[in-house]
């Protein structure tokens, strides 16, 4: 099974190709275009991945985009409404990008790669981050924490990775509850880690690991 993963239209566009769960090739568009932090459609990086695997777009079983554009647009519209009229200028500029590129991702992928619509999937932003950390790791089970500027709505998340599954325990979202997800997550982890470390005789690094583990399991 050949799966092409794509990230673009925000910063540092990139592509990766997996065959039967094994990484075959990956590349950032800036390495080919020579444009620093190139965020456009990663045409050259995709071609590099396809060539490395010796396949064409028609050989792909799935093409996966790194986030859900419509859910992200929902968040942007909400944040603009909450901060209007100061947000008007930013809104106007970002909408140009959305109308030109982001809302047409599926159409672009179909025409560029020759894949049918049912082969195009959209991952959640923080699931993409969690998967990129857990699946290449040497662990069969692991606690996973993601912290980001923002994804669709979430700024941070806690999850458990088991085998080929990732189970989310909690998302910390911006705006909806008017609290900063990073601050909330950080304080929870700190509190629980300190509490656990008071009852352990192990080395400090071990205590930190247990604290994190206990905080999410
Ligand atoms: Fe991110």
What this model shows, in words?
This protein is of the alpha/beta class and 217 residues long. It folds into 2 domains: 2-66 and 105-122, Nucleotidyltransferase, domain 5; 125-216, no CATH class. The chain has 8 helices and 8 strands. The strands form 2 sheets. The chain has a 5-stranded mixed sheet with strand order 3-2-1-4-5. It has a 3-stranded antiparallel sheet with strand order 6-7-8, with helices on both faces. Strand 6 and strand 7 form a beta hairpin. The longest helix is centred in the C-terminal third of the chain and has 17 residues, at 181-197. The site of fe (ii) ion has 4 residues, from helix 6.
Number of domains: 2
Structural class by secondary-structure content? alpha/beta
What fraction of residues sit in β-strands? 15-25%
Percent helix range: 40-55%
Q: What composes the largest sheet?
A: 5 strands, mixed
User: So what's the overall shape?
Assistant: globular
- Walk across the major sheet and give the strand order: 3-2-1-4-5
Distance between the termini: 33 Å
Quick rundown:
The protein is an alpha/beta fold and 217 residues long.
Itemize the secondary structure elements and their pairings.
Layout: E1 2-7, E2 14-19, E3 22-28, H1 30-33, H2 43-53, E4 62-65, H3 69-83, H4 88-100, H5 105-113, E5 120-122, H6 125-134, E6 141-147, E7 154-162, E8 165-173, H7 181-197, H8 204-216
Parallel strand pairs: 1-4, 4-5
Antiparallel strand pairs: 1-2, 2-3, 6-7, 7-8
The chain binds fe (ii) ion.
């Amino acid at each position: 099974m050949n799966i092409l993963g794509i990230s673009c239209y925000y910063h540092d566009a990139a592509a990766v190709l997996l065959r039967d769960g094994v990484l075959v090739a990956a590349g950032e568009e800036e390495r080919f275009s020579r444009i620093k932090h190139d965020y456009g459609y990663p045409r050259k990086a995709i071609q590099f991945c396809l060539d490395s695997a010796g396949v064409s777009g028609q050989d792909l079983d799935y093409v996966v985009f790194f986030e859900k554009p419509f859910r992200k647009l929902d968040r942007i519209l909400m944040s603009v409404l909450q901060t209007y009229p100061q947000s008007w200028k930013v809104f106007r500029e970002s909408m140009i990008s959305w109308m030109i590129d982001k809302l047409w991702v599926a159409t672009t992928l179909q025409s560029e790669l020759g894949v049918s619509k049912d082969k195009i999937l959209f991952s959640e932003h923080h699931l993409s981050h969690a998967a990129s950390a857990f699946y290449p790791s040497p662990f069969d089970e692991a606690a996973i924490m993601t912290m980001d500027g923002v994804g669709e709505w979430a700024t941070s998340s806690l999850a458990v990775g088991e085998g080929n599954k990732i189970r989310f325990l909690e998302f910390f979202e911006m705006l909806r509850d008017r609290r900063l997800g990073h601050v909330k997550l950080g304080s929870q982890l700190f509190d629980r880690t300190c509490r656990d470390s008071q009852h352990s005789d192990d080395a400090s690094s071990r205590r930190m690991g247990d604290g994190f583990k206990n905080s999410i399991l």
